[in-house]
Amino acid sequence: MSSATHGATPYYFVPGPSSHPVMAAIGLFFVILGASQWINGASWGAWSLAFGMVFWLVTLFRWFRDAVNESEGGMYGRKIDLSYRWSMSWFIFSEVMFFGAFFTALWWARAHSVPALGSLDNALLWPDFKAVWPSLAAGVTASPADIIEPFTTMGPFWLPTINTALLLSSGVTLTIAHHALRENQRGRTIAFMWMTVLLGTTFLFVQGYEYFHAYSELNLKLTSGVFGSTFYMLTGFHGFHVLVGMLMLLFITLRLQKGHFTADNHFGFEGAAWYWHFVDVVWLGLYVLVYWL
Could you tell me the residue range of the domain that residue 186 belongs to? Predict the structure, then answer.
């Protein structure tokens, strides 16, 4: 959001009729239809999925472009600023609940499910079962029937620790960029924003290599019992959120280079920063609970 004004800023801006919501829904319809048919063996599902994704992304681009033009045209006043802040706050809250569900699943498996399977009630069914977390080999914990291949867990050294340093550093560079923008130092802001984007991109490449290492050398897969499923669900969804946050920061940086945002009014920047700091906090929880404990 920018504070550029051309004439009087309205007390509350009401946009005109728009086809963007309907078009976005159509795109998502083809995405869901294609994905559901593709995983069920229909070859045309992949084409429907690809068409829906392109259609949806083009619609989002046009929608965001209109919002940027409205902002730069001075149509957004204090009420719109507040509505954006509340919207972003509730969105991040929903993301907290999203990750909270997966963290709870990890805790429940470790603290309740595995100990329950090792109780006296199940001793007759699996007399050799050892209720130890995490499962390191077939038949030890997650696979009393020997249906899961042996695997090695992913420890904190060194790739996860490197990624932790990358994300924490990106939070620092983003904060420096924010303070520079508030001091109207646009060049310094842009420089530190590019550093933040680079750190986020590097994180994704390191995580990609970590997954390759886990699959090829540790035999750690999504099918590796409850440990494998919770590991990939938590780290995978977090990686997707890093990708989304990195794209948000990239577009904010490009807008900064075009002269958007001011020292006094720049919620587009702040909203992306909120999201990125949230991603940082989630990773710290992952780093401790998944890699260390």
Answer: 77-292
